[in-house]
Specification:
The complex is a heterodimer of chains A (263) and B (300).
Chain A lengths: L14 H4 L11 E10 L8 E9 L3 E6 L5 H8 L7 E6 L2 E2 L8 H5 L2 E4 L11 H11 L8 H10 L15 H13 L5 E5 L7 H16 L3 E5 L3 H4 L6 E6 L2 E3 L16
Parallel strand pairs in A: 3-8, 3-9, 6-7, 7-8
Antiparallel strand pairs in A: 1-2, 1-4, 4-5, 9-10
Chain B lengths: L2 H12 L11 H33 L2 E6 L4 H17 L3 E6 L2 H12 L12 E7 L4 H15 L3 E5 H44 L1 H9 L4 H41 L2 H4 L5 H31 L3
Antiparallel strand pairs in B: 1-3, 1-4, 2-3
Helix pairs in contact in B: 2-6, 2-8, 2-10, 6-10, 8-10
The chains are: A alpha/beta (263), B alpha+beta (300).
Amino acid sequence: MGFTAARPLCHGCTQGEAGSAQAPNSRMSAIVQFENVGLRYGLDSETLSDVSFSLASGGFYFLTGASGAGKTSLLKLLYLAQRPSRGVIRLFGEDVVTLPRKRLPGFRRRIGVVFQDFRLVPHLSVYDNIALPLRVAGMEEGEIDAPVSEMLNWVGLGDRGQARPATLSGGEQQRVAIARAVIGRPEILVADEPTGNVDADMARRLLTLFEALNRLGTTIVVATHDLPLMTQVGGAQMMKLDKGRLSDPTGSLRYPPKPQVAG
Amino acid sequence: MAGPDRRAAAAARHRLLPEGRVAGPMPWIIAIMMFLTVLSAAAGLGLGAAVKAMGADLAGRATVQIVEADAQQRDRLSASVAAVLRKVAYVRAVNPVAAAALADQIRPWLGQDAASGDLPIPALIDIELTPGQTDAKVDRLRRQLAAVSPKIRLEPHAAFLAPLAGLLSALGWLAGGIVLLMALATGAVVVLAARAAHDSHRGTIDVLHLMGATDVQIARLFQRRIGLDALFGGALGFTVALLVIVLLGARLLATGSELLSAIHLPWTSWAVLAALPIGCVLLAMLAARWTVLRSLGRLL
């Protein structure tokens, strides 16, 4: 699965720095904007400091950095599990920091999350786990079966629908987590170390799933420190966190994957 | 959505929390509390009914005593007092108590000598006043009879049994208080159970929360499960309490005592008792909803 469409760029990065031929910035809209965001847990020093960036709708982004650099914290802010201590975060054009709490579920439904530890619901079958976002969104039961079956087949688990998560291998659980994250056709998919628990072959296959989803228009944000993995996605961009700061954001495409121009 | 589809959707939603009881002992605790609550409520209602019946029975009744040692004078005075009483407009009934009946009543205490005539037993006349303003009528009648003879005394029946009625009434209020305390305790048990359930299902709740489930959606899951637990416990406790009440009622009737037989439950009281398990379920669901919404409110 390769890219066939023009890829957006990280806002704030120049074309030259991006090092790849992409769609012009003027045609992109920022789906995520962080402005001077800081995050502090309790009285500790800031986990994230002065983080500013914006992500274009339909982009594919890798977030990298050493362990403890703040990747998971940044993702938590992105999927609305945490409010920042300071700064502004805009999702889908709205400031979510000051957004009333009761409006957050609507935003969360537009974001798919693949957790590092999968967080599958252990007493539910694979089928019910994948159907969860649709049921949360209030979809009628009769309309659920088709997309869930399709998704099961898409992740290669068509015959494991009634299995419990505990009976699945790590890779299979990972695929269920991905299927659950994407079944609601989220506008943003956030994945925290999605390849951390799988072998290289499975990692490549998972990435292929993300690319396919990205081609459908979903903005992908993947936190990883797997550099070889990043080089496999054409047009993807990299943000690097270092001790809570987004280091050299304009040079974040220092490891640009081979550009794949729309053809 | 068609019926079967709606049922399937509901079943799927209900599966979001693990099947089985959310907090093991909760239904049993609720059963015990419901048992005690129904018994307390039945006691309160029964005693209330007894006090009411006693009040209605005694209101407007009084006994005129003619305390005269000489039997002949006593009989004469008794006849003239009865004649006076019959002329009073607000005296509805005048019933002189026969000497034999009086002797029968005091025989258990005084033995056969009671009827010998050696003992100066006062003559009694039971009277019934017209309804309303009983105290004022008794006062007026007392003055009227005092004018006839200073040896005449008037004793309203309510005065005899006022301490007993007061005791029964106090017991009734105590039972009502126990019902209220039980309701509070039930609410507290449910709050604790809901908190425990919330904590033990924290992982699932977090996932649902991050998928965009609203607080109300999540609270409904707990509300339903705790409601079912309360329904089970409430029905069990109510059924056992009902059996005990029926058995106790039979024992009370078997005593043959007029006073104890006055402790009965009218149909309105049975309706109140039947509403208790329903109230328990509603209380449990509300407490669970409040607790879970409050816990979720602490999340972003």
